[in-house]
């Protein structure tokens, strides 16, 4: 009798804990604080305060105070922006209610002649077109993006070097009618090198949901899922959840030398032949398990990707078999992206955010995605299903 009672108590307790876990996992916190002028210590009203790449933000009141609620636990980049002051950024870990008081903003001097030059620049439309093509991207979604205030962009083109650079002192307002977001993007720097074929940009983004009818929202959700599945964010999130091997295949990019082509499979996969030499070279792919390239770090919630070779990443949506024949084992069917290491480690957090983006180069679809494919960190598809190809 006593034994049965203990079993019943344990069972009920187990169920209680099971139902409690989602409440703990999805606990939300409040971040509040104040913003002041570094020079005189006075409060700064109307400053934009937000968590980078999220929909979470607010404005400071007349006393320079702010409050952001509904923040899921995680690591974020806190951004404070106000015209006439240098933008402030700080990495914050939110796992409970947090208070940050006395954020100091440094005044800056805006060069007024830049506005005059921009307004009288006869090549302005050409530079703006170049900027939009690279900043918004060239996908079908980019056609549904519109920058409502391009006049705030400062763009300079060095003709002899074929380099376009730019930045903004205030938020670019981008309406993405493909995904249903209004993005306020503070562009710190932009560089397009037409000779080296390199593009880089860096800034802070704040998202707002557009208003739409049920039919529009359904289409937006379809497009959001098409962007999310197979993206670097999706990959890094399933890596931290220990499920990457069920959705993705990761292989090192390296060269294998073979001495003979007697094997017909080798013949079909031959990439390079050097004269009449008996030596042949071919791309060699060996599928890696997550533990081979993902490693923990001393910082809680931060992980590292490292490997002696660059990594090619293949994505297989639900319903698409992973088994590959001998030919495709060495091909690129299903390849969605690659990590080309610039630094020896790529650091990322469990939000799927790369913490040192300058330390890696992304290729294939990952390298082509731009602001038109940008989603807030808080976006998580409600269903796991195969989406239409873009």
Topology summary:
Layout: H1 2-25, E1 28-37, E2 48-51, E3 57-59, E4 65-72, E5 74-81, E6 88-94, E7 98-105, H2 112-119, H3 124-135, E8 145-147, E9 153-158, E10 163-168, E11 172-176, E12 181-193, E13 198-209, H4 214-228, H5 232-240, H6 244-247, E14 248-252, E15 254-258, H7 264-269, E16 272-273, E17 280-284, H8 290-293, E18 294-296, E19 302-305, E20 311-315, E21 335-341, E22 346-349, E23 360-364, H9 365-368
Parallel strand pairs: 1-7
Antiparallel strand pairs: 1-4, 2-3, 2-5, 5-6, 8-11, 9-10, 10-12, 11-12, 12-13, 14-20, 15-17, 16-17, 18-19, 19-22, 20-21, 21-23
Keywords: Carboxypeptidase, Hydrolase, Protease, Signal
InterPro entries: CarboxyPept-like_regulatory (IPR008969)
Signal peptide: 1-27
Description:
The chain is an alpha+beta fold and 390 residues long. It is 22% helix and 35% strand. The protein has 3 domains: 28-105, Immunoglobulin-like (Sandwich), CATH 2.60.40; 112-224; 240-368, no CATH class. β12 (181-193) and β13 (198-209) form a beta hairpin.
Strand content: 35-45%
Number of domains: 3
| Helix/sheet category | alpha+beta
CA-based gyration radius: 25 Å
Shape: globular
CA distance, first residue to last residue: 63 Å
Counting copies of identical and different chains, the oligomeric state is single chain
* Low-confidence regions: 7-25, 268-278, 323-330, 386-390
Supply the number of helical segments.
9
Main sheet, how many strands, which sense, barrel?
6 strands, antiparallel
Number of extended strands: 23
Mean pLDDT metric:
84
Helix amount:
10-25%
